[in-house]
């Protein structure tokens, strides 16, 4: 296995855990029937132990892969522009959901706010980013 393929494998693996776990955080925060602080504490734990490490793995390996062949991704082909746009949106929402989990856990807010809608936008954006990466459009 060469280095670029290993980075791609780690990047995809990190993304699978990251997106799944941050959606789990959103699911926990928006679940009813439990005290908001309890939901926040569980959401924050998932965020700290799964979402953040997986995000770091996906980000670092993706950046390393990108820097290895910058000309290919930004000059010769153009699909990476679309992928990165939606990836940046996912990153931003990831941090907002994590921040909401922390606030719920500390009791500074009493509800999940727009977390459900943010989770939908995050999931759709992740799917669109994957579309660009797999189909490489526009080429």
Which keywords apply here?
5 helices; HemJ-like; transmembrane; mainly alpha; membrane; transmembrane helix; 139 residues; single chain
Please give the domain count: 1
Oligomer: single chain
What does the radius of gyration come to?
17 Å
**Could you give the count of β-strands?**
0
Helix content: over 70%
Approximate shape? elongated
Report the average pLDDT across residues: 96
Mind describing the biggest β-sheet? none
**Element-by-element helix/strand order:** HHHHH
Provide the structure class.
mainly alpha
* Weakly predicted, low-confidence segments: none
What is the terminal-to-terminal distance? 26 Å
Strand fraction band? under 5%
Q: What's the tally of helices?
A: 5
Keywords: Membrane, Transmembrane, Transmembrane helix
Transmembrane segments: 6-29, 50-68, 80-97, 117-135
InterPro entries: HemJ-like
GO biological process, one term: protoporphyrinogen IX biosynthetic process
């Amino acid at each position: 296995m060469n280095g670029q393929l290993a980075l791609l494998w780690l990047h995809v693996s990190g993304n699978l855990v990251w997106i799944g776990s941050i959606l789990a955080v959103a699911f926990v925060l928006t679940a009813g029937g439990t005290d908001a602080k309890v939901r926040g504490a569980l959401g924050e734990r998932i965020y700290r132990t799964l979402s953040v490490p997986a995000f770091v793995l996906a980000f670092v390996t993706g950046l390393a892969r990108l820097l290895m062949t910058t000309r290919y991704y930004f000059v010769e082909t153009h699909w990476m522009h679309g992928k990165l746009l939606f990836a940046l949106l996912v990153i931003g929402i990831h941090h907002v959901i994590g921040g909401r989990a922390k606030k719920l856990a500390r009791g500074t807010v009493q509800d999940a706010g727009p977390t459900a809608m943010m989770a939908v936008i995050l999931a759709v954006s992740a799917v669109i980013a994957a579309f660009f990466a797999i189909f490489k459009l526009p080429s």
